[in-house]
């Protein structure tokens, strides 16, 4: 099964029943982690381990575009645009 990674890296967290509970970035400033104010991946993992609902289950992955065979290097699937531009 493909999960539709948009960027590298693009993280996915699954619960014990293999249900996707988080997808997106690790931190809000991966180029300079000293300036990061949010660790989205760590928050999601901690909430999962604590038995809580994931408070923010989707974030905008930050990184280089995944390259798609036969498409322009900046192409993304149309249904990915909401994730990238509206979050």
Overview of this protein structure:
This protein is an alpha+beta fold and 87 residues long. 17% of the residues lie in helices and 15% in strands. The protein has two helices and four strands; from the N terminus they run βββαβα. The strands form two sheets. The chain has a two-stranded antiparallel ribbon with strand order 1-4. A hairpin with a 5-residue loop joins β2 and β3 (20-24). The chain is flat, with a radius of gyration of 14 Å. The two termini are 25 Å apart. The model has no long low-confidence stretch (mean pLDDT 84).
Question: Can you give me a brief rundown of this structure?
Answer:
With 87 residues, this protein is α+β, with helices and mostly antiparallel strands. The protein contains 2 helices and 4 strands. Strand 2 and strand 3 form a beta hairpin.
Count of individual helical segments: 2
Strand order of the largest sheet: 1-4
Number of strands: 4
What gap, in angstroms, lies between the N and C termini? 25 Å
Which consecutive residue ranges, at least 5 long each, have pLDDT under 50?
none
What is the 3D shape? flat
Radius of gyration: 14 Å
**Helix fraction bin:** 10-25%
Structural class by SSE content: alpha+beta
From N to C, what is the helix and strand string? Answer: EEEHEH
* Strand proportion: 5-15%
Which features characterize this protein?
17% helix, 87 residues, 2 helices, alpha+beta, two-stranded antiparallel sheet, two-stranded antiparallel ribbon, single chain
